[in-house]
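pinging the channel bc i need a second pair of eyes. not urgent but kinda urgent?? the chain im working w is below, pasted from the shared doc
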Amino acid sequence: RPTSDHVDRAAEEAARAAHQAAERHRAQAGQDLAALRADHAAAAAEAGDEPAEALTGAVRALEADLAAARAEAAGEPAARQAIAAAEAAHARLLDQRRDAERRGAARASRRAALAAELTALRAEIDRARADAPTVADRAAALNRRAEALALAAAAARAAQETADRRKQADGRLADAAYQAGFDSPRAAAEAALPEVERARLRRRVDAWLAERAAVAAALADPAATAAAAEPPAEPEAARAALATAAGRLRAAATAEAAARARRAELDALSATAAADATELAPLRVASRRITRLASLAAGTSPENEYRMRLETYVLAARLEQVAAVASARLHRMSAGRYTLVHTDARAAHRARSGLGLLVMDAWTGRARDTATLSGGESFFVSLALALGLADVVAEEAGGPRLETLFVDEGFGSLDEQSLDEVLDVLDGLREHDRSVAIVSHVPDLRARIPAQLEVVKTRRGSTVRHRTG
């Protein structure tokens, strides 16, 4: 798709016509030069001892011929401008294909070179603007002018060939961009850059366009136009500038080829990355789901405020059942004072929660931590929990209940009333066809338990004997 800087066929035809006109003017200038040389020779031969008036007339005739030659060569600036326009269009087409960073550096270098060349040209124009002192000097100037026109014609032909090659390259680039799904090569280039980088490059391009407009305004100045219309000087400098421009053209072509290769690599990498991202999308979803479940089960999820593991949650449900069953016996053992309550309150110091127990004190109406219980209170709370756990396990298993229970020590920490209440609970278990065995050194239990197994220590070892009531 053509851009705003694209050189169309009409411009090419105009440049070609200007070039042909320059060729014709150059040929005419050569003929005029030959005629002037002949006139000069004839005037020199005829001068001899002629009076001053005759010589003055001859000089005036020669000056008229010189003015006519200048008028006939007035078309030279148009050819030079057409050639310069073709070269500028060619440079713009090259600049559009360069990498964004190298384009900025190339523009800066080009502006410096143009400024230096403009300064040199202005100096040369100032030197060439002075009138020639003799006809021979003017003839030499016309000869240099003819050589410059020949160089300009060659440069125009080279510019035309370069423009044709650039036009073909533009077509191939536009086709490649369209096949890749872009509306234009510019859109394809912008798609390969981040938004921040594109904005930065746009600002640099805008600055360059502003500078180009300023340079164009300076070149449009009448003084600059008049200076450009003067015949150029120093053909060797022009040849050197042409060689430099050719070298820059080759370097630009090499940079463009490298940029295209790099772009092809980036397109391939982008396609591969997109395919990999599409392939990994389901795995990411599954990974997030599994990670969330694992964190919930491990108690590390931010949503789990109590830091409770999955197994802790299950045990907390069972502990709540055990506490409910144990509270019935604890209420009886403590003469209606204590009951057990399960708590899942958040533990301090980032500890895990969910398996806490509190003792409700009916006398104070407050919940107490189990660590505040006395030795005797801790014993019958532990006994109530053990009995409750046995009942819950038997009920959950759906099998036979525990028929025999062993209670080891702890009775020595009970006062007489508490001991009576604990024994009443144990007697209640016996009434439901359960056997309860008590392991203790408390003497008061001997009078309250009819069937006993006494362990007697001797020097020869320990013996067991059965005693009844």
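so The chain has two domains: 9-282, 310-468. and Residues 405 and 436 are 5 Å apart (CA to CA). — does that match what u expected or am i reading it wrong
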